[in-house]
Amino acid sequence: MKIERLALYNFRNLGPTELVPAAGLNLIVGPNAAGKSNLCEAVYYAAKGWLLKGERQRDVIAWGAHEAALELTVNGDHVRIHLNGRARAKTIELNREKKTQSEVSALVRVVLFTPDELQIIKGRPEARRRFLDRSIAELSREYRYIVLEYEQTLQRKNALLRQGTPNPDVLEVFNEELIARGSRIITQRIEYLKALNKTLSQHYRAIAGRASELTVTYETPLDLSSGDVRAQLARLIAQAAPQEIQRGMALVGPHRDDMRFDLDGHDLRRFGSQGEQKSALCAMLLAQLDLYYQRFGDYPILLLDDILSELDSRRFQRLLQLLPAGVQIFLAHTVTEISELHPAVRTAAQRIFLIEGGKVSVAL
Which end of the chain is flanked by fewer CB atoms within 10 Å, N or C? Predict the structure, then answer.
């Protein structure tokens, strides 16, 4: 999968831009706040319809403008997205025919990796759950809708619980919906991590340069050995009912679960060095690409937003060497001068785009 042309109009701080990316590594460089991350976000937004900063569609339209547009040519297909700020409208076209975001997402597949991903290991459980759900949703369109429906029902249940004396019949309806969707979420999370673990250790050894075993384990109060996820979840929710009413919030379900990274049998979050944690994240990225290829028979477009600020040159060089041949990469990196680039990074780049003050130029 390759982006053959990218054009932007009034997208955040970027001026009118048209790029012809290389099929391999595209390096996007410039000083802080120049717009490098915005270029990566434009690709991600076109593919997913998800914002990386802010929550409103209006946030991506340049200050003082009333509309914005994105155009991508991907493997010969033309995608155009137009945002009308005044009407709060979004129009999506594929080869000049109106389409939904989900139809475009099925065509344009991307994986995003940022310095924030380090929080997957050492951050709070919600960061790990968000990463896990996003990763599975990138392979399964259905999963995203299941998660959204679960979250909406969870919000309604919590609102009901905060009343102090919730209507038991309404509460039962919400619980039934949460059990149905929550059991599917837990099952798919477990299956995804099982598949990820098949190649995770070998990728870690290649990145870290030493023999180690890296595994990711799903943490839940359910007994996963029994296999009856739905029945167990129903029982735990019923048992927690008095405490949930007392505290005014749902206390059982996939929204409370977590995952743990173990390196040679030790909790990587508690006992791992920063270097080991970063190597583990690189291994996670490579294992994700394996699953993409198994699912689609092709690799996604890879967006690496300023990860050189977190990875030392040795790990980054190994990551570049281990990435599958044929992956198109957009790597944003903060430098004030092209001469500041690490020689290995500059050598690997097939095309270098320089961004200064929202203007994009080709440096190589």
Answer: C
